[in-house]
Amino acid sequence: MRIELQKRPTPSALYAVLSPFIALGLTLIAGAIMFTILGKNPLDALYSFFIEPLTEVWSIHELTVKAAPLILIAVGLSVCYRSNNWNIGAEGQFIVGGILGSLVPILLPGFQNWLTLPLMLVLGMAGGAAWGAIPAFLKTRFNTNEILVSLMLVYTAQLFLDWLARGVLRDPNGNNFPGSIRFPSAAQLPEIMPSQGSAHYGILLAIIAAVIIWFMLRFTLNGFQVRVLGANPRAGRFAGFSQTRMTFFAFLLSGGLAGLAGIAEVSGAIGQLRETISPGYGFTAIIVAFLGRLSPLGAIAAGFMLALTYLGGEAAQMTLGVSDKVGRVFQGLLLFFVLGCDTLINYQVRLVLRKAAPAAGGQG
Amino acid sequence: MDIAQNILLTIMTAATPLLIAAIGELVVERSGVLNLGVEGMMVIGAVCGFAATILSGSPWIGMLAAIAAGAVASLLFGVLTLSLAANQVATGLSLTLLGLGLSGMIGESFVGSAGIKLASLDIPVLSDIPLIGRLVFGQDPIFYISLILTGGVAWFLFRTRAGLTLRAIGDNHASAHALGINVLKIRYLAVMFGGACAGLAGAHLSLVYTPQWVENMTAGRGWIALALVVFASWRPWRVLGGAYLFGAVSIGQLHAQALGFGIPSQFLSALPYVATIVVLVIISRDRRLTLMNTPASLGQPFVPDR
Amino acid sequence: MQNQRTETPLLETRGLTKIFGSLRACDGIDLAIAPGEIHALLGENGAGKSTLVKMLFGVLDPSAGEILWKGKPVRIGSPGEARATGVGMVFQHFSLFEALTVAENIALALDGKVAIDRISEEARRLSLEYGLPLDPSAHVADLSVGERQRIEIVRSLLQNPELIILDEPTSVLTPQEADKLFETLAKLKAEGRSVLYISHRLEEVQRICDRATVLRHGKVTGACDPRQETPSSLARMMVGGEVAEISGAGLGEPGEVLVEVRKLSAPARTPFAVALRDVDLTVRAGEVIAIAGVAGNGQSELFDVLSGEVTVSDADSLRIADVPAGRLGITARRLMGCSFVPEERHGHAAVPNMNLSGNLVLSRYASDREAFLTGGWLGLISSGPVAAATKRISAAMDVRKSLEDPPAGSLSGGNLQKFIVGRELDRQPRVLVVNQPTWGVDAGAASRIRQALVDLAKSGSAVIVISQDLDEVFEIASSISVINEGQLSKPEPASGMTRERIGLLMGGFHDGTGHGTETAEAAHAN
């Protein structure tokens, strides 16, 4: 048995729209099989995983809290991947953004006015961008593989944060528990509707960022550069676009947005700097970017989808007693199916059971 | 002298999983495929090896289970990138993410279980030779396998016809196809070999290095293995050198942590990752040389037209 | 001759058809090759020649029809089966591995069992026997195109085939190297082997082939003895109707100097590239300078340096309209009135997945900033003017397309090339540099493009055409220079040039002082 691909003359617009949904469907089927193997009723399980979190107001608030960082990061990664720059270290940029932004309330606890929060957000972006600039610099200057470098910087950032939260930035009155002081309210990203749930303004930042970047990609020369250099670096050079500048642009943008996500998470959702501040948002956002077909607007929808797997994992753990790791498995499966289904856009796929006879009239 | 011997021994133990995973990936990349899922396959190997050991009582069965699990995981990658021509970078990443999630789920009930260590194979008489006896002849079985794999892969690639074919595909898959070589079949085999190696490397972690299951216990070793392949310019014996160098760095920082020195342990723990970056920078600085060594069709999807 | 006709053909095809999607690349091909003959397969680019031979060699599966070998139907499912049957193949774009040695390359085509050192020995012996000297331990990356072709030929001869297929073998050779190849073919024929010789060059087909089958649009349009035909009757079969003559008349006296290259050198940027050495070239307004040469002698490197995709450290070594330009990038040079058309359409001159209007912006966003961009620093692309210009260019160059604004990759080679050339002509450049303007383009589009280049020069611009196609060079050039191993010969007026002289220059003879060793020997032997 083998799979035969036949290149389409032009990419299929139909499958470009359908492919994420087919992938979603396949993921649900795979999930049902998985729950059956785990001895659960698959329909119940899928219900508690994907529907239940949407039935209550507080948990929809929770959903936006999880979706905000995913969307912010994925928007930047979309630009990165479209321009053929493989930043997979958004998790590290997220962390460094969180750290740098947190320095304001931790080191200057007295500095509390309307400037505090904007300053934190800007510093967060700067921190993420700086961390992202390292792989960009090494790639353009020394031809170093940005995938490996950006990933190694994730581990480095995690260890650095661990050291800070247990060491120099630890709350002196915290009974030796790791973690900084709790941020004063001027340093916290406010909740949108505090009476109803925990959703904070991070989600607004995320949607604004997505729309701006979408506009940039769709209508401006800069976005045109991203698309050209990503599709054909050689054609990009012919056009006079600089690969080096594009690499920096993509890494600074995605690093900056990841850093913004990091400080928004720390100041909006957590309220202090802890030794871990991310349940793997930087990696999950990679899936969001691909599920959104590397489009910033697609990333909004995909971000909510993936946020659901986080909540669903928690819900499934409570109601079904299955591991919350199931959520991560769903995420991985989803990306697999998305990538597989994307083949349908550019190719006609045919399953050949045995080696094809040469031609109908081959043997006379 | 004993201390030195012990340090050398731990370095070898730390280097072995890196070496095995990198050798497997080297074969994959020599065939022109970039599988970034090493970390995921490795962690799946680690958990499956551990689980099978507990369930069967035999670490040997655990080892075989790890190899099989790694190979099956790599098959997923193969179907996507080879049969469906999906983007290799993204697919490799998704394999890593899936592997980390899946291993966490499988391993949840084994957290805290006491593992069974794969016993050392003390070769009689020889292992009693002073100084080098224990080092060379008193190691765990996977250590020996790692050396055999390195030598075997070097021989296979440069001394056999099949190895020549594999290198040819990595150099130019279109030409290979025109000559009638079944590019996808050989790539499937290479990818599965890489998966099996990653699985075995994972088994070394959960059956020899620290015989227990801890979530994400590979801790980036799969990624370091990927870096080692670049570092070694796709040459098997250089992978061996690189793996031992990294083994020394990670053991060195452990000893430094134990001794104190007043350096925060987190900084020392970061050392292997920083070292990886530094080594990558040094090795890829010469663009021309890198271009010459890299398999020319690495990472390019191949769709045969028929 | 009479006997051969009645004999069972060595290879025969009946109604052989290959369909790609909606395209019938080969449509009911009947072909018969007699033992011991050199059979030409004539047809212009895109006629279906390569598809046909790929089916004969088992690389492609036929959609319909059958192949007979010595009168019996056979199924050739893979190149391995083709070789086992007795068919050998020399590819147009070589199927060689750059990183491997000559011996390893040969070993890969032999099915099993033979030890590598034995292959070296055998390859050396055969290569000498057929006058194709080769060093088995050399790396392919270091070899010239002619030497690479020898590997292909020796590789197929090692199989001892009864039929050898050569796909456009002389397109990469100097005239002298081609003569050597013809001797080898005569030798093969004398041994009783058959040769299927694919070409679009009428002169050489008439010279060496016993019979010819002509293809057009995937169908057989004629089968003949080429020696009984005239070049124009063959051309009619091949092209179908008369092709417009290019009118070079009206190229007046050259005007001011627009491009001046002085002692320009550029190191090789990759292990597989060619270094440029002391290139001198002066191009005036109203001139078409053609740079002839065999592929892989530094043409694309020269193009990159002229276009500014690669800059040189000495700014003065390239002056455009008397301004030092060596260190200026491609955008700055475009702003000075230059336009460029690179060789590779897909992924260099155009982005295949992007539609035509996007591909228009690709090379014109800077030079036509006012027309195509708005919004100040935002740099918004104005779709209206871009669409209008796309339409204008398509009309001017007769670009045939199924949609208003299709992806560039969905156009045929000829139509895409017309669009790309039209994109640059549309802005009336003062200087135009073109690399292989009609490579892989059908005859109609090619003559339109050539006429457009000549017309541009007539209107007072300087045109530099880098081309491997000698017919094209003679058709349009006012002066001709030859590139060889990164060096350029002094341009000479086209009227005084002969093919023989160009051939010598291609082989590295600059005014009698040769430096190309391999090719020089080959030339001496003649």
What secondary-structure arrangement, pairings included, does this model have?
The complex is a heterotrimer of chains A (364), B (306) and C (526).
Chain A: E1 2-7, H1 13-37, H2 42-51, H3 57-82, H4 90-107, H5 116-142, H6 146-166, H7 202-219, H8 221-231, H9 233-239, H10 243-270, H11 281-291, H12 296-320, H13 326-346, E2 347-352
Antiparallel strand pairs in A: 1-2
Helix pairs in contact in A: 1-2, 1-13, 2-12, 3-7, 3-8, 3-10, 3-11, 3-12, 4-5, 4-6, 4-10, 4-11, 5-6, 5-10, 7-8, 7-12, 8-9, 11-12, 11-13, 12-13
Chain B: H1 2-30, H2 38-56, H3 59-83, H4 88-107, H5 132-137, H6 141-159, H7 161-171, H8 173-178, H9 183-209, H10 221-231, H11 236-259, H12 265-269, H13 271-284, H14 287-293
Helix pairs in contact in B: 1-6, 1-9, 1-10, 1-11, 2-3, 2-4, 2-9, 2-10, 3-4, 3-9, 6-7, 6-11, 10-11, 10-13, 11-13
Chain C: H1 2-6, E1 11-20, E2 23-33, E3 38-42, H2 49-56, E4 64-69, E5 72-74, H3 79-85, E6 87-90, H4 102-109, H5 116-129, H6 145-157, E7 163-167, H7 175-190, E8 194-199, H8 202-208, E9 211-216, E10 219-224, H9 231-239, E11 257-266, E12 276-284, E13 288-292, H10 299-307, E14 318-320, E15 323-324, H11 330-335, E16 338-341, H12 356-364, H13 369-372, E17 373-374, E18 380-381, H14 383-396, H15 413-425, E19 431-435, H16 443-458, E20 462-466, H17 470-476, E21 479-484, E22 487-488, E23 492-493, H18 499-506, E24 509-510, E25 513-514, H19 517-525
Quick summary:
Chain B is mainly alpha-helical.
Unreliable spans of chain B: none
Helix content of chain C: 25-40%
Number of domains of chain C: 2
Helix/strand structural class of chain B: mainly alpha
Tell me the strand percentage band of chain C: 15-25%
What name does the CATH topology of the largest domain in chain C carry? Rossmann fold
- Oligomeric form: heterotrimer
- State the separation between the terminal residues of chain B, measured CA to CA: 65 Å
The chain-level mean pLDDT of chain B equals 89
Q: Which structural class best describes the helix and strand composition of chain C?
A: alpha/beta
Rg measurement of chain C, Å:
24 Å
What is the approximate shape of chain C? globular
